[in-house]
Amino acid sequence: MPRATLAAMTALPLQPPRRLLTVAEFAAFHEATEGRFELQEGNVVVSPSPTPEHQVCLQELLHQLRPQVPDHLRTVPEVDIDLVLVPSHRPGFVRIPDLVVVTREGLKRRRAEGGLLRADEVVLAVEIVSDGSQRTDHTIKHGEYADAGVPHYWILELDARPALIACHLAGEFGYVDAAPVSGIFTADEPFPVRLDLDQLG
After folding, report:
1. Neighbouring C-alpha atoms within 13 Å toward the C-beta of 98
2. Model confidence over 169-183: pLDDT tens digits?
3. Is 27 left (phi over 0), alpha (psi -120 to 50) or beta?
4. Which of 78, 42, 69 is nearest to 195 (CA)?
5. Measured between alpha carbons, how far is 91 from 103 in angstroms, rounded to an integer?
6. CA 20 to 30 Å from 194, out of 4, 131, 152, 200?
7. Per-residue CA distances from 48 to 37, 51, 96, 113, 169 (Å)
8. Are strands 73-77 and 99-103 parallel, antiparallel or unpaired?
9. Average pLDDT of the chain?
10. Strand partners, 163
11. Over the stretch 108-138, which tens digit does the pLDDT of each residue have?
12. How far is the C-alpha of 174 from the C-alpha of 150, rounded, in Å?
């Protein structure tokens, strides 16, 4: 086979398996591919590439957030999280939040054991809403993160003026959503934080 043809073939993206995957099977598939994939009840879902505005927001959010995160926590952008919603042999759920704040112990555990970070190691998940993710971020991931026990979930809207909706777990009721905040956002949980949201847009 000509070398150019072989090179072209190896550059083609690997197609998702046509069956439901466990988290371990998805992790093995994901390691062999390039691109943004998530796992929703065993189904491989392609995440659209982020827009420049999305990435500017994420970078500025990281810049503001990192100095305020306590030493026992770390900020990690765009990383696979096993939501651990089902037993390991069942079709699973893996999401890539735009940003998570996780425990250092969780990072240490993952480094030692391999695999993915788990939902119980996440104290905060953040999603930046894009044109193609309105329902996913506000409804589907809202329910999944609550079911997974992620204690805090922030939804960032980038309309005319950036706005943040802070959601926190309230027992069997799932998330309780605060009213959207523009301008300066402050919170005491999951750690004291102050953000200038206007700098995110």
Report:
1. 26
2. 998 889 999 999 999
3. alpha
4. 69
5. 26
6. 131
7. 9, 9, 12, 30, 28
8. antiparallel
9. 90
10. 157, 182
11. 999 999 999 999 999 999 999 998 899 999 9
12. 10
Tell me the domain boundaries of the chain.
50-200
Q: Which residues of 27-51 are buried (b: 16+ CB within 10 A; e: fewer)?
A: bebbeeeeeebbbbebebeebeebe
Residue found under tokens 């046509």: 18
3-state secondary structure the chain: CCHHHHHHHHHCCCCCCCCCCCHHHHHHHHHCCCCCEEEECCEEEECCCCCHHHHHHHHHHHHHHHHHCCCCEEEEECCCEECCCCCCCCCCCEECCCEEEEEHHHHHHHHHHCCCEEHHHEEEEEEECCCCCHHHHHHHHHHHHHHHCCCEEEEEEECCCEEEEEEEECHHHCEEECCCEECEEEECCCCCEEEEHHHHC
pTM: 0.89
Contact, 146 vs 131, CB < 8 A? no
Q: What's the CA gap between 79 and 72, in Å, rounded?
A: 19
| Strand partners of residue 195 | 185
CATH assignment, 50-200: 3.90.1570.10
